[in-house]
């Protein structure tokens, strides 16, 4: 539930997250990306308003289209994959975003460097 949060606060929340977030609307147009100087996949303001297909390597566009079409058709609600990039493990997840009636309104892309997370063993309690 969101109450009394300004656009600026919402943007600051998204930018503070250790996950890169992008939102693509139901027409496959990039509408938002979280900022940060440590982004794995750098974005420039010019990406806003562009088709997401123009933001991916040509060899992966057919896979992106398949995921987005599956979201539109309700065949799936998420897709995940991981890649090795510069000796880091990058975890990328797509989530279908639906309104209260279940209609597809877009896709949320979440990208995270999980290299250090994969090294976690045992447990660490708060403030240990």
How would you summarize this macromolecular structure in one to three sentences?
By secondary structure, this protein is of the alpha+beta class. The chain has helices spanning 7-16, 58-72, and strands at residues 20-25, 30-33, 78-85, 88-98, 104-113.
Q: What does it look like?
A:
With 128 residues, the protein is α+β, with helices and mostly antiparallel strands. It has one domain: Beta-Lactamase (2-Layer Sandwich). 20% of the residues lie in helices and 30% in strands. Strands 2-1-5-4-3 form a five-stranded antiparallel sheet, covered by helices on one side. Strand 3 and strand 4 form a beta hairpin. The longest helix is centred in the middle third of the chain and has 15 residues. The radius of gyration is 16 Å and the shape is globular. The protein starts with 6 loop residues before the first helix and ends in a 15-residue tail after the last strand. 11% of the residues are buried. The model has no long low-confidence stretch (mean pLDDT 90).
Which descriptors would you attach to this protein?
128 residues; Beta-Lactamase; 20% helix; globular
Instruction: Please state the overall shape, judged from the principal axes of the Cα atoms.
Output: globular
Tally of discrete structural domains: 1
Which whole number gives the mean pLDDT?
A: 90
Rg over alpha carbons: 16 Å
- Tell me about the largest β-sheet: 5 strands, antiparallel
């Amino acid at each position: 539930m969101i109450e009394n949060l300004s656009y600026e606060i919402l943007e600051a929340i998204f930018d503070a997250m250790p996950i890169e977030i992008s939102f693509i609307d139901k027409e496959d147009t990039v509408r938002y990306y979280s900022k940060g100087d440590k982004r794995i996949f750098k974005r420039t303001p010019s990406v806003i308003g562009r088709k997401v297909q123009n933001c991916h390597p040509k060899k992966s566009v057919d896979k992106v289209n398949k995921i987005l079409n599956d979201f539109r058709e309700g065949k799936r609600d998420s897709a995940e994959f991981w890649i090795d990039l510069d000796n880091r493990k990058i975890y990328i997840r797509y989530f279908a975003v639906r309104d209260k009636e279940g209609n597809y309104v877009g896709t949320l892309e979440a990208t995270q460097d999980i290299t250090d997370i994969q090294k976690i063993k045992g447990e660490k309690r708060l403030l240990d």
